[in-house]
């Protein structure tokens, strides 16, 4: 037996709540976590989120990547590289020591941050890479670019993004949400979210955005009702559905949870040229802590 409650209003997403014994899963936290540290404040945010997601006996690595220019600079010789490496390791060690952690520190050079952190994650055989969201505003990101969303491209493992200021307001993960649309990627995200919720003793919910231009109100209501029905069948969670642009609605929903879990699909070069996907747009300015899981 399970109970279903449906409520709706003009200003809030429609919701269906279920309680189902199928929502009993063994704990499964991440056991080998790499924390990317570029700026100190963002590094602190990322480290706090990593500690929340890592298993008690897991391995933790703090990583810094120095981006080198395609054209060698005057200090790009062996002596300059050694000095940059020493400076990077000292900063990582200071962050580790102030956090009272037993963590490895790694410093590397690469042509871009994405390549460097991905290479470190592969070398460490990481199952999770954690970064802090950029402090740069939207105009700067549009003009110069930003590596936060780019790190999702062909990531070698799951990627978590801590929102700006997470270290100052951190707390237990009491509410975990998942972006769901019935795709294989969202099914995988749901599985991860279930296990995390069980381990954290957190409330689990799922959200589906119903999108598409030019729909009549009756059609919108029918599609939202169908989305709620799909979420109801999942069992063991609170289901929410709302009509609107996917990223905007997920951002709104994300403000109501401590952690939002999303699935990520691999895009072809043509797909990448069309612009960033939903997960990338959310990662650039996350409404809450994000966890993006890719394909096996």
Which features does this protein show?
disordered N terminus; 296 residues; alpha/beta; Rossmann fold
Radius of gyration: 20 Å
What's the level 1 CATH class of the largest domain? Alpha Beta
The total of beta strands comes to 12
Beta-strand percentage range: 25-35%
Euclidean distance between termini CA atoms: 34 Å
**Architecture (CATH level 2) name of the largest domain:** 3-Layer(aba) Sandwich
Counting DSSP H or I runs of 4 or more residues, the number of helices is: 11
Given the helix and strand composition, which structural class is it? Answer: alpha/beta
Number of domains: 2
Instruction: Characterize the overall form.
Output: elongated
Give the neighbour order of strands across the main sheet. Answer: 1-2-10-9-8-11-12-7-6-3-4-5
- Can you tell me the residue ranges where pLDDT is under 50 for at least 5 consecutive residues? 1-12, 17-27, 139-145, 267-275
Mean pLDDT: 81
Helix content: 25-40%
CATH superfamily name of the largest domain? HUPs
Q: SSE order in H/E notation?
A: EEEHEHEHEHHEHEHEHEHEHHE
CATH topology of the largest domain: Rossmann fold
Largest sheet features: 12 strands, mixed
Write a concise synopsis of the structure shown.
With 296 residues, the chain is an alpha/beta fold. The chain has helices at 40-53, 78-98, 113-123, 138-144, 147-150, 166-169, 184-200, 217-234, 246-254, 269-273, 278-284; strands at residues 5-7, 14-17, 30-36, 54-67, 104-110, 128-132, 158-162, 175-179, 203-210, 238-243, 259-263, 289-293.
């Amino acid at each position: 037996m399970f109970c279903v409650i449906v409520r709706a209003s003009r200003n809030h997403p429609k919701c269906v709540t279920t309680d189902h014994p199928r929502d009993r899963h063994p704990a499964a936290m991440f056991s080998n976590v790499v924390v990317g540290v570029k700026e100190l404040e963002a590094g602190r945010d990322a480290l706090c989120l990593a500690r929340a997601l890592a298993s008690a006996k897991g391995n933790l690595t703090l990583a810094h990547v120095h981006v080198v220019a395609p054209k060698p600079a005057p200090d790009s010789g062996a002596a300059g590289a050694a000095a940059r490496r020493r400076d990077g390791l000292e900063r990582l060690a200071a962050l580790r020591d102030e956090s009272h952690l037993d963590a490895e520190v790694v410093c590397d050079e690469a042509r871009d941050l994405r390549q460097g952190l991905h290479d470190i994650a592969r070398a460490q055989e990481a199952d999770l890479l954690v970064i802090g969201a950029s402090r740069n505003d939207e105009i700067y990101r549009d003009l110069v670019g930003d590596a936060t969303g780019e790190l999702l491209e062909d990531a070698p493992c799951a990627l978590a993004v801590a929102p700006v200021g997470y270290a100052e307001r951190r707390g237990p993960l009491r509410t975990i949400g998942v972006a769901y649309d019935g795709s294989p990627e969202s099914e995988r995200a749901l599985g991860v979210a279930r296990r995390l919720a069980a381990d954290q003793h957190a409330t689990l919910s799922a959200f589906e955005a119903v999108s598409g231009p030019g729909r009549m109100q009756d059609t919108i209501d029918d599609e939202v009702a169908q989305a709620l029905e799909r979420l109801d069948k999942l069992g063991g969670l609170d289901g929410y559905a709302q009509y609107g642009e996917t990223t905007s609605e997920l951002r709104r929903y994300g403000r109501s949870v401590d952690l939002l879990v999303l699935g990520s699909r691999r895009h072809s070069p043509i797909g990448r040229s069309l612009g960033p996907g939903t997960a990338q747009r959310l990662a650039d300015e996350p409404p809450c802590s994000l966890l993006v899981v890719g394909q096996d």
